[in-house]
Amino acid sequence: MKFYADVHRTKKNSGRYGITYSTDGTTFRHVDSFSGMPAGPGDQVFVDTLPVQHTYGVIELLRKGVEVYYLRRFTLIEKARRELRLPKNARGDIRALMSVEEGWFRRVTGDFLVLRRMILAYRSLLKTHQQLLNKYKALSEAEREVLKPAISSIEKQMVEMAKNS
């Protein structure tokens, strides 16, 4: 069975995502996590996007034997929605997702999801490191001494994370 899911923010600026899914385009259900979907072995789940917060739910689906695919070009939903004259809501997005050719979807693996989380963590450290370096350059020599241990600590964490991956 094919499931089509739209991942959307639950409230503005909340950082939480809800999932609306359908198998036929007429009956819609809502879940908070991918693990709440009734998909079983051999089923396929097509989603528009995979927020990092839902990594573990998707991994759980993969362990059940479900194939998960995500849309490679998110702009295709907008294009399909416009062509089919669908509203900009979860139901419209699912119907648009159903009209997109399967060739535009990429299959998700557990390794991909784990690696993606690690890259996100590393980028966060890298961004903090760059911000501290910029502040370090703007300070006087005496004030720089305060930031040196923090910069050094982040550099060590970055090296450790790179070794472990």
Description:
The chain has 165 residues and is of the alpha/beta class. The chain has 2 domains: 2-108; 115-164. 50% of the residues lie in helices and 18% in strands. It has 5 helices and 6 strands; from the N terminus they run ββββαβααβαα. It has a 6-stranded mixed β-sheet with strand order 3-2-1-4-5-6, with helices on both faces. β2 (17-22) and β3 form a beta hairpin. α2 (75-83) packs across α3 (90-99) and α4 (110-138) runs antiparallel to α5. The chain is elongated, with a radius of gyration of 21 Å. The mean pLDDT is 89.
Give the number of domains: 2
Largest sheet: 6 strands, mixed
- Helical residue percent band: 40-55%
Class by helix and strand content? alpha/beta
What is the compact description of this entry?
The chain has 165 residues and is α/β, with parallel strands linked by helices. 50% of the residues lie in helices and 18% in strands. It is elongated, with a radius of gyration of 21 Å.
Secondary-structure map:
Blueprint: E1 2-9, E2 17-22, E3 29-31, E4 44-47, H1 55-64, E5 67-71, H2 75-83, H3 90-99, E6 105-107, H4 110-138, H5 141-164
Parallel strand pairs: 1-4, 4-5
Antiparallel strand pairs: 1-2, 2-3, 5-6
Question: What are the defining features of this structure?
Answer:
elongated, 2 domains, alpha/beta, 6-stranded mixed sheet, 165 residues
